[in-house]
Amino acid sequence: MSARSHFWRLFLVIALAQVALFAQVSDRQSQGRALVAAMAQAQPATATVPVAKTAKPSDLAGDWQGTLAFGAMNLRIVFHIKSAEDGLHATLDSPDQSAYGLPVSSVELKDGAVKLESEKVRGVFAGTIGSDLSSLTGTWTQGAGSLPLTLKRVKNAAELERHPRPQEPSKPYPYRAEDVVYDNKIAGNRLAATLTMPNGKGPFPAVVLITGSGPQDRDETVFNHKPFLVLADYLTRKGLAVLRADDRGTGESTGNFATATTADFATDTEAGIAYLKTRAEIDPRRIGLIGHSEGGIIAPMIAARNHEVAFIVMMAGSGVPGDQILVVQSTLLAEAGGKSHEVALKTGERERQILDLLKQNQDDAALQKSLREKLSAEMRDAQIGAAVTQLMSPWFRYFVNYDPAPALRKVTCPVLALNGEKDLQVPPKQNLPAIRKALEDAGNKNFEADELPGLNHLFQTAKTGSLAEYATIDETIAPVVLEKIAGWIVKSGLRAAN
To answer: Exposed (0-12), middle (13-18) or buried (19+): which is 264, by Cβ within 10 Å?
Structure first.
């Protein structure tokens, strides 16, 4: 996958300090928000080791690894520096975000002072090289916030190798895997995807996987986990064909991600359905959808208007409008971060007041003025511009106002809605009852809505559901979830299509 599909993740640190954004977020967005808050509060580091003031450019060449620590979360950051005739060059990795080869625009070394700047991610490391030439001590600055960062020289490159999570399948697979491309004729973009199919002629039942929010690759890669690779592998071994694609403008897919809304992403999924219908190996009457997080909004959106969809599975999909999720999410995340219940409630109330501004019918100039006035009490001037830009983005404004209930009330195909008990991003107590009611209003007799004990937003077995746990859990998807989805599809999802 192209590095450009990843640069925005934790490195896209817009200083939102106390403002919780992106409720229907991928975990990367929530992690980014937490990092923003920590950076806004952290103090720059001061060097405590002797400085090599006579260090040469060649002394800086090599691999350097450090960890950004904020609260209970830790994120590794790696610089690869090379010395050439025309000067120093570098790239940047965030291994925990599966982001590699991000461009570093300038590398400076003068009297032992080191500066590494990446315009791409709007981040700068500034520090000094130790006299033993084995450490760089300084500060990582992004947006209006900073975090202390010490980088150690990597002596063994094997330390930087990616180690697959235990559930990640390895080749050769006992089925066919084919890289494919197809066009979204409505938007004019091309989607790059992987189609896995059981061995044999078929025709096979099939599913299209729909990623959560944020530009994600076809495996929905996050914190060295590949949930959609694991899910596709499991389902294909059970006799289903599975199509999973890079999001538009991400990886090998074309298109503009930044200007797209949830409704636009739905047309990308519909292009995938249309593509499957062109394949002789696929049964066109038995094509279903599985969506995670934002994908759980898109699946019923499509099924409501396309009654040829055989079934849908909503993994942490929402049942209430986006602004309602954001308020509850910000409250739960504040508590998970150690705030008292009273302080967390105040955090949610501040969130609600900001979102209320977005829902008012103001022109852009008036809205921007209102947001700036509101945010001025919560953050520094340097942070407000980036926050307002994000709040006024097409995707966010659409999400805040979109209510999934009307679409759910039109869904008549079989539906499986799953939420983890410990999901703090799409809380089950808030969303599952709303999903059940909407499907009952639709007269849908073939649906199941379950809260699964002990699972978080990524459907990992978790202790608290805190975002800090995501990277520390080796399990990518709890086996009970894989079994539940596959068993339900065979028993209920495909029954109406047979």
So the answer is: buried
pLDDT at position 149 over 50: yes
For residue 154, the SS3 value is: coil
Amino acid symbol at 32: G
Residue 72: its pLDDT value, please? 59
- Calpha distance 375→353 (Å, rounded): 10
Which tokens hold the place of 177? 């895997």
- The strand order across the sheet containing 176-184 reads 176-184, 189-197, 241-245, 204-210, 282-292, 312-315, 415-420, 447-452
- Architecture of the domain whose range is 3-160: Beta Barrel (2.40)
Tens of pLDDT along 52-104?
Answer: 889 999 999 999 999 987 665 678 899 999 999 899 999 999 887 777 888 99
Please report, for the chain, the start and end positions of each structural domain, with discontinuous segments joined by +: 3-160, 176-320+403-493, 323-399
Say yes or no: domain 176-320+403-493 is CATH 1.10.10.10: no
Distance of alpha carbon 402 from alpha carbon 414, whole angstroms? 23
Phi, psi dihedrals of residue 305, rounded to the nearest 5°: -110, -5
Mean pLDDT for the chain overall = 86
What are 31's two structure tokens? 């992690």
What pLDDT, on a 0 to 100 scale, did the predictor assign at position 146? Answer: 77
Nearest residue to 75 (alpha-carbon basis) of 224, 212, 216, 211: 224
Separation between Cα atoms, residue 254 and residue 242, nearest integer Å: 21
Structure-token match 């019918």, residue found: 361
> What's the whole-model pTM score?
0.84
Q: Where are the beta strands (DSSP E) in 173-240?
A: 176-184, 189-197, 204-210
